[in-house]
């Protein structure tokens, strides 16, 4: 597989973005959704900001207060035995059997704009910012599906009540209409198909189970993009392979003659995130046609291997021009990069199922 | 609170039901949904059958094979250190961070019919039986909502891919139409309201989270009962109270002058299951009006305290006649019982929020 990584990579880094919160530092500008609007490429950056610490023994967890509209900080002592601080992204409560109790940063969505898709200018203000109790820990990993002249932007919302996926829509990227939570917790990595298939909208999603089951890709259908049902398990983890740990949809599915091409992420048991591809039936996307045995993109460049959380390539959006797939992707939970691949080469690389 | 438990309790027990599977024993006839059809009360029993063991050192886990349409048995040695057998309902894989790996019984739905609501005759054949890969570990805890002359029956479906909620509909209880999975894993305890509220259908549901969040009650809306969205967190666990461990909807919400009355179950940290009530706004059921400080029904009778999994009262359906609430409920994960309560007394017992 030929991979052309842009010379400009990483194309947006935390140094390019001024913090929105006073006393905070930007630690991540990553996992951006992508759209074309007029003559520009828009990148919907997940911007992660962390309170600047005044004490190395204290970890501060930012929480949005929907009543006051301000951020509040929880101060946690690193020697507090109730908590575990090994993962830099989260604080775990060792007395609770859940993944985490607090996040160490708060994320929201900011737009970056470009004429050439390589050099971006980041807006000064957030585009989507936490607004209610479902979003008090932040908003993450947006994806964008254009249907007609409407852009649907959906993203993970995080709160003590769970991680779900909410959606807004806009035609001009100035105002946005909120549609509420379209997938309830525990869910993320939703990707809405860009057109109806046999009269129905489809979406990929990635529930995370506690009772039984693994973090794998499911498919659902809808008549109005807001209410979803007929959920079906689509593809699973593969033992001893690059996608054994967890998988989730990445870019909005791409219509090809051979089927719907989904660029998805897979992580190993050691949390190394790669990108692969799966091909779904054109008339029935709940039927899997073919899948990558090997990744189409692995963390190899220095900026992919090192960062806030290293060894991660994680795409939330791609643009297709003829045979060229411009895959934008977050690197190391820190910055944005872009690589061009051949659509035909991706399709040829897949193994029939 | 006055509680009138039927003299006939338990009204259906495993001894009343002939196993459907050869070589199996019925260990549970419980957690039944309830409907009125013509001049009869129909009980949609969850029937749990367990393979009769030929060796005390072996636990057998039944799995439905959708390709052959038959049950297969996995044999697990009790001295196999990879597994844990402490909970009689499940087998845990100690190497996996999920709730369970296998169930020790398989459940499906069978109808019991009665003229007086006390003496039931159980159908010989299953009404809803596993049919696809989402149901290979069985079908559990049905609820029934009547809308017009159509009955919607929805239930937990269990497989290695997760626990979700699927739905069928019928007008005659002879044939049933399948509508697929309406809530994806990890979810159960769905309750569909019996009429539209301000132009939309509503349902309660109970996601279970792994990342963050507790097993609490959410509310969603729909236009067609099949696709669901606008998910909102509704009520949570309460520290050091009877519903601190987990909660979930029980009976179909009851329309009263004061609001929608939901009879829900709550379990303590020690897995003692009680029934309580919550009142939701008549025009906006996502708004909570009042809630039980104390349970309205606790496991006190011998048949409620002792059984396959003791100290459990768990209602999946109730009938309302004037001021009388006939609450049918599963006892000790074993049998069915019924108690009559006063609707007014339940309403009067609630504490405003």
UniProtKB/TrEMBL annotation, chains A, B:
It comes from the Bacteria. GO terms for molecular function: hydrolase activity, acting on glycosyl bonds. The keyword NADP does not apply. InterPro entries: Glyco_hydro_beta-prop_sf, Mannoside_phosphorylase. Signal peptide: none annotated. Keywords: Glycosidase, Glycosyltransferase, Hydrolase, Transferase. Pfam families: Glyco_hydro_130 (PF04041). The keyword Hydrolase applies. Belongs to the glycosyl hydrolase 130 family. This is Glycosidase. It comes from Cohnella kolymensis.
